[in-house]
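Z., the sequence and structure:
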Amino acid sequence: MRRAIIFFAAVLILAVVNFEIYKKEQLLTEGSTILLELTPVDPRSLMQGDYMILRYKIASLVEAAGVGRNGFLVLIVDENQVANFVRIYQGKELQPNEFLLQFRKRSRGINLGSESFFFQEGQAHLYSQASYGEIKVAENGESVLIGLRDKDFNQLPHDEK
C-alpha cells in the first residue's frame, strides 16, 4: 500500500511538472512579443554567478498608480513593439491593440515575473547595453522573458561563440 501511494504521488508530481512545461512551451510559440524598457542594475552575484536583475521602467509607473497586491496591467504596444502602460485592468473588454500583463506587488516593488536574466560567467559585457527585456505574453497575461535588446531594438546574443 505504501509503495502504491509513493508511486501515485510521483506520477502526480511528474504530471504537474510536465503540464507546466507544456504551458510555457505554448506561451513561447503562441505568445505575442513585447518589449519592456529597462532601468540599469548591477549584473553580479557572488552566490549565483553572473546575472542581471531586471527592473522595468513600467513598474515605477504601476507603483505610482497605487496598485493592490496582484493584478493585471493593460499595455499598448507601439510600432517597435515597446509596451506602454495604459491602466490597471478592471475587467473591462480590451481594445484590439491592448495586452494584459500579470503583476504581483512584493516588498521590493512590482514583480512582472521575469526579473532575472542569467548568463555565462565573464559575458556581462554582452548585456551591458541592454535597454529592453523581450517578453512573450499570452492572452491571459502570463509572460516569459526570452531575451534582451539594445537601444536600437537589436537582439543581444545569448552567448559568445
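Residues 1-30 form one domain. Helices lie at 2-30, 57-64.

Let me know what you think.
H.
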